[in-house]
């Protein structure tokens, strides 16, 4: 059995932002990163890929090229967590021991929870920006669309980037206008939620925009089945249990999601299956040498890479204090998250807020509810560099310092 000072599970933005800093601090052979995939994906780009505004290749890098040089990459999958023995088990049966564990394994997509989805995906107008293969189909299907029903769904589960299903709806609606098929098209957005966006501060603006663009909204409406042969989708209304069938010519699915099974089945899970951490310190509520961040954590904010920027800074401060045996006042996470709401090829509403309080936490000294082409440029061209060159190597821990520095420019009438 190998033993490490710190073991990190997963090399998405959560795992890399932490392992880069810790491996630099502790030196060789001290930090292991367990990650099966040989590719790392910048998933926030996938909305732009689906909308035809970015090439898929810009969202991928070889895992070896983003792995911290001082960390040991164990290219395998964790199958079991054994926190009572400070060990994890790999798919090859080996065990890896740790003093401290950081879990950052992301969210699991449960394609099977919609009947017929797996078979239908990627063919005959059925697509999803939520997978590596199908995201490449979205734009070709939008361009091939000749009119009829364009249907978009939002699942009845937690999901990563809760704005993503809405963003692709707006981008597709605009594309149908540009392609001259909009007047023969019903754009239908079926969401399991009771409103378009969880935070009303931005949601009200978004709803007004959806109305202006003629997007039909159906609330509490959950996709339960796809009949690809007949191009028909089945929905359940979760307010009155009514079942409706809807013919589609284009269908974008945001699939049901949930905690990874190996976490759900472990002692680290809360009742819902997420890694049960303190929402301020990111330390596990029962096992003091375990931390988690990102999509697999129980942190009650919306699951985004933007949230991970803030989470990673807090986690590292607290874990480094543990490693050094220092008694410091714990760093605390405020629930910061962001949803760059792309509403057109050159239009974006940069929602930034605390998922804990619902209060806006805006970086720039303007009312960010305004549609902005500058925000679109920042999100499309600048934030990707901040991700690859700042978040992954541990130096970018979110915009809170920028926000504080710019505060003096903020008009008094803004929140
Ligand atoms: P992930 O990035 O999913 O990484 C988890 C890693 O763990 C993976 O590499 C995986 O291979 C590995 N892993 C899984 N299981 C195991 C195991 N058993 N053992 C070892 N390793 C394992 N966020 C934003 O901030 N802004 C956006 O605009 C935005 N848009 C998005 C649009 C789309 C279409 C999607 C899909 C996501 C979007 N996101 C956005 C969300 C963002 O991509 C995620 O929140 C972020 O990637 C989560 O990072 P993570 O490290 O927690 O998990
Ligand atoms: C951010 O830092 C980040 O990660 C690098 C994102 O994820 C892709 C974001 O979406 C956002 C909004 C931020 C915040 C950065 C700024 C400059 C507001």
Automatic annotation (TrEMBL):
Keyword Metal-binding carried by entry: no
Any coiled-coil regions, as ranges: none
Single Gene Ontology BP annotation: sulfide oxidation, using sulfide:quinone oxidoreductase
A GO MF label: FAD binding
InterPro entries found in the cross-reference section: FAD/NAD-bd_sf (IPR036188), FAD/NAD-binding_dom (IPR023753), Sulphide_quinone_reductase (IPR015904)
Keyword list, A-Z: FAD, Flavoprotein, Mitochondrion, Oxidoreductase, Quinone, Transit peptide
SUPFAM superfamilies registered for this protein in UniProt: FAD/NAD(P)-binding domain
Residue ranges annotated for the FAD/NAD(P)-binding domain, each copy included: 4-122
One Pfam family it belongs to: Pyr_redox_2
Signal peptide: none
Origin: domain of life: Eukaryota
Chief location of this protein within or outside the cell: mitochondrion
Cofactor: FAD
Gene3D superfamilies reported for this sequence: FAD/NAD(P)-binding domain
Compartments, record wording: Mitochondrion
Record's GO cellular component terms: mitochondrion
PANTHER family referenced in this protein's UniProt entry, alphabetically: SULFIDE:QUINONE OXIDOREDUCTASE, SULFIDE:QUINONE OXIDOREDUCTASE, MITOCHONDRIAL
Family to which the UniProt record says this protein belongs: Belongs to the SQRD family.
Stated name of the protein: Sulfide:quinone oxidoreductase, mitochondrial
Species whose genome carries this gene: Hesseltinella vesiculosa
């Amino acid at each position: 059995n190998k033993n490490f000072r710190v073991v990190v599970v997963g090399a998405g933005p959560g795992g890399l932002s932490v392992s880069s800093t810790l491996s630099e601090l502790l030196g060789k052979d001290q930090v292991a990163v367990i990650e099966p995939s040989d590719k790392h994906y910048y998933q926030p780009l996938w909305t732009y890929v689906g909308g035809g505004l970015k090439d898929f290749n810009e969202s991928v890098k070889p895992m070896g090229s983003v792995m911290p040089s001082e960390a040991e990459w164990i290219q395998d999958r964790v199958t079991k967590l054994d926190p009572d023995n400070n060990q994890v088990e790999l798919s090859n049966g080996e065990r890896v021991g740790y003093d401290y564990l950081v879990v950052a394994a992301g969210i699991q997509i449960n394609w099977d929870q919609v009947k017929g989805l797996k078979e239908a995906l990627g063919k005959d107008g059925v697509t999803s920006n939520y997978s590596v293969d199908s995201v490449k189909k979205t734009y070709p299907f939008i361009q091939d669309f000749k009119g009829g029903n364009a249907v978009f769904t939002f699942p009845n589960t937690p999901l990563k980037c809760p704005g993503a299903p809405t963003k692709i709806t707006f981008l597709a609606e605009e594309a149908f206008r540009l392609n001259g098929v909009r007047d023969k098209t019903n754009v239908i957005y079926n969401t399991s939620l009771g409103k378009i966006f969880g935070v009303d501060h931005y949601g009200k603006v978004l709803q007004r925009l959806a109305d202006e663009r003629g997007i039909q909204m159906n609330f509490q409406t959950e996709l339960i089945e796809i009949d690809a042969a007949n191009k028909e989708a089945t929905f359940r209304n979760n307010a009155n249990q009514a079942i409706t069938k809807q013919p589609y010519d284009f269908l974008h699915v945001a699939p049901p999601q949930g905690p990874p099974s190996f976490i759900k089945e472990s002692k680290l899970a809360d009742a819902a299956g997420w890694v049960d951490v303190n929402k301020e310190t990111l330390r596990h509520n029962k096992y003091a040498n375990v931390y988690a961040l990102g999509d697999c954590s129980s942190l009650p904010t919306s699951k985004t890479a933007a949230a991970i920027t803030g989470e990673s800074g807090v986690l590292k401060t607290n874990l480094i204090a543990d490693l050094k045996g220092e008694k410091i006042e714990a760093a605390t996470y405020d629930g910061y998250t962001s949803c760059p709401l792309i509403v057109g090829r050159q239009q974006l509403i940069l929602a930034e807020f605390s998922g804990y309080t619902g209060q806006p936490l805006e970086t720039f000294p303007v009312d960010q509810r305004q549609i902005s082409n500058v925000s679109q440029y920042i999100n499309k061209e600048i934030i990707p560099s901040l991700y690859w060159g700042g978040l992954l190597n541990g130096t970018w821990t979110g915009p809170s310092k920028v926000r504080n520095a710019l505060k003096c420019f903020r008009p008094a009438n803004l929140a």
